[in-house]
Every structure is written in structure tokens, then in C-alpha cells.
Design a protein that fits this description.
The structure holds two protein chains of two kinds. Chain A is 81% helix and 0% strand. Chain A starts with 5 loop residues before the first helix and ends with a helix. Chain A has helices at residues 6-9, 11-14, 26-50, 54-59, 61-71, 79-111, 113-133, 136-147, 151-175, 179-187, 192-226, 234-243, 247-275. By secondary structure, chain B is mainly alpha-helical. Chain B has two domains: 4-50, no CATH class; 59-256, MetI-like (MetI-like fold). Chain B is globular and about 75 Å long. The model of chain B has no long low-confidence stretch (mean pLDDT 84). The chains are: A mainly alpha, B mainly alpha.
Amino acid sequence: MDSAQNAEAMTAPHGRQGGKIDIGVAGGGHFIAGFLIGAAALTAASLALLGIDWVRLAGRAGDIGLIFWRMAHFTLDHVDFTLLSFMDTFSIMVLATVYSLFLGLAFGLLAARNVAGPVIAPVVKAVFTFLRAVPTPVWVLLTLVCFGFGPVAGITGLSVHTVAFFTKSFAQAFEDVPEDTVDALRALGATRLQIIACGILPSAVTQLIAWTALRFEINFSECAILGMVGAGGIGFAISAAIQNYDYGEAGLAVFLVFLFAFCMERGFLYVKKIMK
Amino acid sequence: MMNRQELYVCRTMAGILLLSFLIATYYTGFDPMAVLLHLGEAWTFLTEDFLPPRFQFTPVILESLAVTVALAISSASVAAVLAAGAAVLGSELLSPSKALAAAVRGTATFLRNIPTLVWAFILFSSLGVGTGVGFTALVITSFAFMTRTFIEVIDEIPAGVVESLTAVGASFWERIFQCVFPSCITGFISWYLYCLEVNIRSSTIVGMVGGGGIGMVLLSYLKAFKYAEASGIILMIAVIVILVDRLTDFLRKKAAE
């Protein structure tokens, strides 16, 4: 969930690479001290508001160990159901991400200032900012009401948030294409379509791949929890097994989720290393 | 341009993707055209039942909103403090032992690759529902996420800096507090803020399955077919998420200055 965020968020520590440790920078130091104090105060206020019964929570911590112990002993009584549910989750993830990729490319072009112009781009961006602000499971709950139970609801619900995500990040990638590239093509008499196909898309392609890989990881974990809010898939298998106190079955399902997420993360890390 | 190895990787990835897509389409029988045909019905449903949104600012709703935000803030902060400690032990540059570093990284990878809601479900079954359990579930994934990113930030420190401090006789604690934390704090803060953004969304969802907060209110409205009220809540969630995103963006830029 983090790797591609690197680009924007990690600019800070890069400034420090001269081998010098600039600790007492006047403005920065004050800001950081203020920030830390503010965060601590907010945290204290939040904890006071929540009023969690820590003693009771700590008293039952031993139960967690017991649950894990039971979950670590996989049972295979309903393994066919677990595997089919996993297949549902996998399919929904793949289909939602692939279809959103194409829609995201189209809307990303419309949201990029250097492609769609200064009027359309901000409007498209604003619409998708709203769509992105609502969490995926909420969208899935809405599509469940619209389309009824089944993969269609899962795919469309997951797609809403995914398209919004791709639109934002792709638009950013397109806007990062140097002005000169676009100007040079325009000066040569290229049409708008040619500028997009031969200038903008090829220059942004590595970023597009990075964002897509990131979204596959996010969508898998989103998809794995859909079952818990009422859609199908592995999340439903996990919550149903836990509610039936069938911890061995739940453990197997959780392990499947972990294994797939882990392999995907490793795979993309490997690809990233080679593409660098 | 791409070399042969890169081209090979790209082709393999495209192949896997195409194969997965075909399998998934066959398995679910999903037809995008069918969705387009149903879009009209969905649209009438949305415009008739969900619009106009009905906003209610009752004490219960305002308190649930506050609980959701408080869950996100407190879990991110507690997790950040824990993660800063774990990152020192997990970074190969600083850790007292290689084995310990590997163990910390492995644990973080395991915790991180299981979604927050799955943790919430496991904890609910052993601890019962409530904000305390929602808090714990959020802390687990935030901790694992920040441990990994904090380690990455620490690894950005040029190795020579720590080495030179060791050479002049600085103790472990001096190295941490005089060198590592001061040079990493802006990186830590920017990841903490990112985690806060993610947690606002996650705490809404954890609320739905029993963690308390606005998610629970939303789910109860949807289950009672009170769609206009539900869309009011959805808009409130969206406004809060956008506000938090704006605020964290601002603070992140400020911290990087």
C-alpha cells in the first residue's frame, strides 16, 4: 500500500543525504516540536473520548492466544467451500482491477490538465475526489442493494473506488510528462490523438505500471473483506467459520489470504527491482 | 529502452494478467454489457431512494463521527510510537542482532498482509465487540505498516553517519536519539500522516462489523432501508475524509520544508 506513495511522501528524507545531520533548523524544528505536541494532545483527547476499559481488554488478552492456537490447527472439512470462496475473491479482484484500468485511463486523460484543458480537468478531478473519499465497502453495500447478491455487485462496487484511484494517479502521471514533449509534437503538427498515443502514454508508462501493481495489492485486501460486510468471497468464508466457532477452517482461509497477498507483494517487488 | 530481461518480465506479467482475466471471466460469467444494461435501473434507484440526502445532526450521530475520528487518531499515534521502537530493532543498520532484525521484519510482514477487518473479526470473536477491540485491530495493521516504512526511512540514512558516531564512542541510545530520530523525524511524520488517512477509512469499516462509530450507524440505516439518511451519513464520511486528506497534505508539505 505504500511503495508508490514513496514518490510523494519520501521526498523529505532525501534532502538529508549530504552526510550532514541538520538537526536544529530554525523553522523546521519549531514546526516538528509543535506537531508532536499537537499530535500527543489530540491522541490523549481521543483516548479520553473512547474511554476504553483497558483492564477488561488486557484481562481477555489470553483468549487471543487461545484463538490463534486453534486457528493454527487447520481443518479441511469445508476446504472445497473455502477454495471456491477464494476463487470468487480472486475473480472479483482481477475483473474489477482490469476493467477499472481501462476506465481509469480514459478518465485519467480527461482529468489531466495538459490533455483535457483547464476547464474539464478540475471538474472531473472534483467528481472523482468525492468518489474516492467514500470507502470501498460502502460502495459495495450500495451496489449490493442495486444489483443484488453476486459477483456483479462486488465487481462494480470495487470498481467505483478503483476507477477514482486510477483517475487521480494516472492524471498525475500524465501531468508529469514534460511540457516540451507535448509542445514538440504539437509543433510537428501531430493531432491530439497522436500526442496522447505517441507522447503522453509512452512517457508515463512506467508510472502507470507501478500504480496498477499497487492497486492490485490494495484491491486484493479490499476484496478479501467484502464478504464481511455482506458480499461473497473469502471474507464470508472467514466470518462464517468464526461465527460457527470453526476456527481451524477460519485459520486456513486467513492463511490463504496471507499467502496470496505475500506472494503478490514479493512478485511486484521483484518486478520493480528489475524495471528500475 | 527496455532490455531483454525487462521485456521478458513485462511479457510474463501481461501473460499472467490475461490468463487471470480469462479465468475470472469464465468463472464468474461476468458480462460488462449486462452491467451497462442494468445501469438505468441502478440510476433510478439511486436518484429516487438515496437523493436528496437527509442530514441529521443528532447527538448520537455527532458522537459516532467523533468516535470514528478518535479511533483513527489514537490508533495511528499509539502504533507510531510502537513502530518507531520496532523499526530500530528491525533495521539492519541499528539492530543489536541480525536474527532479531529478521524476526521483526517477518512479524511485520505477516501482520500487514492480513487486512484490518480480518484482524477485527478474529479479535471480536475472542474479546467481544466494542471500541477497545476496534482500536486494537487498527493498531495491529498500523503498527505493521509503519514498522516497514519506518525501517525504509532509517535505511535512507547514509551508513557512514551512524558508523562515525560509533567510531567516536557514542552509545546505542546516543546513536538513536542524537542521530537516527532527528534525521528521520520528517520521514516518520509523513508516513504517520499517511497512516492517519488510511485509518480514517478503516475505522469507518471496522465500525460496521462492531467497532463502534459512524460505520455502525450507516449499516443500521442501510439495513432498515432508510436510504436518504444513509446517503446523508455517506456524505458526512466523505467530507471528513476529504478534510483529513487536505490537512495531512498541508502538514506533510510543512514538515518537509
